[in-house]
Amino acid sequence: MTESRRHARRAGIAALVGTTLEWYDFLIYGTAAALILNKLFFPAISPVAGTLATFATYAVGFLARPLGGIVLGNLGDRLGRKTMLVLTIVLMGVATALIGVLPTYDQIGAWAPVLLILLRLVQGFGAGGEYAGAVVLSVEHGDQRRRGLAGAWAPAGFALATLLATGIYQLFLLLPDEQFRQWGWRVPFLLGIVMLAIGYFIRSGVDETPAFRNAKQAEETKTGLFAALRYQPKSFLVVIGARFAENGFAYLFPVFAVAFLTKQLGLSDSLGLTAVIIASAVQVGGVPLFAWLSDRWGRRPVYAAGAVASALWTLPFFLLLETREPVAVVVGFVVGLGICYPAMLAPQAAWFAELFETRTRLAGFAFAREIGSVLAGGFLPLIATALLAWSGHWWPVAVYLGVLTVLTLVALAVGPETRRRDIESAGTRSTVTTG
């Protein structure tokens, strides 16, 4: 194996581990929010209001992500990808572990939800630069003909994180209810410190990317978010728009749908989690497949197919859930989360990185991506729960996701195809204006 291939593989593993931690942090909170946190941190209000309040704290984590994207993205464009990624993994791992030792409302009263919100803000700040940094690290180290596959390391972390988060909670749900309420829900959060240690060790040994080193030595000195906004506004807006459908469906399946099964349909917690685990296992194989297809056919066609398929699957998905049959429920999750969704997630990584030039790539990618996260995924569980409470039916949720899909298709139509671009000149002022 050549030296460049070794660096690329090491960067890919570092991206995989870090992204797994990022999504583990957010999904473990989302799963806990659907199952237990409303009872522990908002016990003085009605069950529906408690669920809404818990999902509101879930959304708070997303509000901090654009700020993290600005600060950490600029740091990564000025000081290097490696420096920023080591910092993000520490922030996220520590915040997640602290949620695991947080006193509940019964112990410290109103301070409990306040502290929960503060830790969610720290989580969100770290996550604001994590995914973009992991993608840029692996893509800039990757071979030009296989950048889609190189970028797939990071989105594959989403599937692994879903497996970990739901699998671990499935295990602890086997405890008696009282034990799960007292201490069982905490352990998945505390395990974040283990992932932090592993991720820190791996990322400390990764080399800086050649593209960043070359750009830093060049005469061009403009870096960071404001340069990206000034010279590449089209790329910035395309990333935001493309996020709507992808991020919305990312939180429909493992977060809102699990809560829908338990609270609306009266099914067991374990059924929804089992369905997510099986679907995520399928997704682990789907991510590299669709990334490979994006290297052959282009980023936009594969992405668009995934968005349309996800939207079309929404109606059959809810109808399958309403059968209350375990096999039907699993099929609904496998097709939606395991097949349709990764067709968006896989090509997105390389495409977003290719839209920006090297010295503005991380800040532009991170901030635009996190704005999309706030507008789509961050509020999806909260909005979907409110729509369900208002209508008593899931159809407004399906309509809402359809609107998000239309916005994403518009962004895909406007954005350029980038799979053949030179990563060291991708997104320069000339390439952006010409598309």
UniProtKB/TrEMBL annotation:
Primary localisation category: membrane
Subcellular location: Cell membrane
Transmembrane region(s): 12-35, 41-64, 85-105, 111-137, 149-171, 183-202, 236-261, 273-293, 302-321, 327-346, 367-391, 397-415
Stored Gene3D superfamilies: MFS general substrate transporter like domains
UniProtKB keywords: Cell membrane, Membrane, Transmembrane, Transmembrane helix, Transport
Major facilitator superfamily (MFS) profile domain: residues covered: 11-419
Membrane topology: Multi-pass membrane protein
Name under which the protein is recorded: MFS transporter
Originating species: Amycolatopsis tucumanensis
